[in-house]
Amino acid sequence: MIAFLTGRVAARGAGTAVIDVGGVGMTVQCTPSALSRLRVGETGTVATSLVVREESLTLFGFADDEEKHMFEQVQTASGVGPRLALAMVSVHSPAGLRHAVATEDTAALTRVPGIGKKGAQRIVLELAGKLEGPILTDGTLPGTAEPAPAPDDAWRGKVVSGLVNLGWSAKDAETAASAVAAEAEDTADVAVLLRSALRRLSRA
């Protein structure tokens, strides 16, 4: 089990990063919040979960252990594989997912690309009482640090890349990114802007 990686960030693309660990380039499929903390040429750390398949070994990267733990927990629901689990923790924070399941908020879950109404109902039923961690009244976790903001307009490319990686077309991704541009004046937090863009796409 590879619990985390620390090394020089060699590259960063649409939903992925390559981290040089001791001269070996490790490709990691990352959440937007994890990507927002990585800078090419600088040393970065991501919590990781290794998914082993007969034909592949895939590393998934997260901003912290809580995000990683939620990724692993939601996969205990039938029909939720690694890709859908990654989309879930990309659209919602761990606290947000706990809150959605605890309050049976299926509408929140259907904002995740790949989850329909029936799928959301099944996920709520199967994960009820299984997602660990306290929930505050505002849906946040005590002591949870805010993701580091992305500089300048770097958020736009990351939001577009994140949306494309989650299954949206490049055209739709660009339109959604433009729609949240006003919000970027108040925050350059890629995870926040990505979730806002996804909500707009889900309503379209």
From TrEMBL:
Residues 72-91, 107-126 form the Helix-hairpin-helix DNA-binding motif class domain. Homotetramer. Forms an RuvA(8)-RuvB(12)-Holliday junction (HJ) complex. HJ DNA is sandwiched between 2 RuvA tetramers; dsDNA enters through RuvA and exits via RuvB. An RuvB hexamer assembles on each DNA strand where it exits the tetramer. Each RuvB hexamer is contacted by two RuvA subunits (via domain III) on 2 adjacent RuvB subunits; this complex drives branch migration. In the full resolvosome a probable DNA-RuvA(4)-RuvB(12)-RuvC(2) complex forms which resolves the HJ. Belongs to the RuvA family. Residues 145-204 are annotated as: Domain III. SUPFAM superfamilies: DNA helicase RuvA subunit, C-terminal domain, Nucleic acid-binding proteins, RuvA domain 2-like. It is found in: Cytoplasm. Gene3D superfamilies: 5' to 3' exonuclease, C-terminal subdomain, DNA helicase RuvA subunit, C-terminal domain, Nucleic acid-binding proteins. The RuvA-RuvB-RuvC complex processes Holliday junction (HJ) DNA during genetic recombination and DNA repair, while the RuvA-RuvB complex plays an important role in the rescue of blocked DNA replication forks via replication fork reversal (RFR). RuvA specifically binds to HJ cruciform DNA, conferring on it an open structure. The RuvB hexamer acts as an ATP-dependent pump, pulling dsDNA into and through the RuvAB complex. HJ branch migration allows RuvC to scan DNA until it finds its consensus sequence, where it cleaves and resolves the cruciform DNA. The keyword Cell inner membrane does not apply. GO terms for molecular function: ATP binding; four-way junction DNA binding; four-way junction helicase activity; hydrolase activity. Signal peptide: none annotated. This is Holliday junction branch migration complex subunit RuvA. InterPro entries: DNA_helicase_Holl-junc_RuvA_I (IPR013849), Hlx-hairpin-Hlx_DNA-bd_motif (IPR003583), NA-bd_OB-fold (IPR012340), RuvA (IPR000085), RuvA_2-like (IPR010994), RuvA_C (IPR011114), RuvA_C_sf (IPR036267). One of its GO terms (biological process) is DNA recombination. One of its GO terms (cellular component) is Holliday junction resolvase complex. Has three domains with a flexible linker between the domains II and III and assumes an 'L' shape. Domain III is highly mobile and contacts RuvB. The keyword Secreted does not apply. Keywords: ATP-binding, Cytoplasm, DNA damage, DNA recombination, DNA repair, DNA-binding, Helicase, Hydrolase, Nucleotide-binding. SMART domains: HhH1. The lineage of its organism: Bacteria, Bacillati, Actinomycetota, Actinomycetes, Streptosporangiales. Pfam families: HHH_5, RuvA_C, RuvA_N.
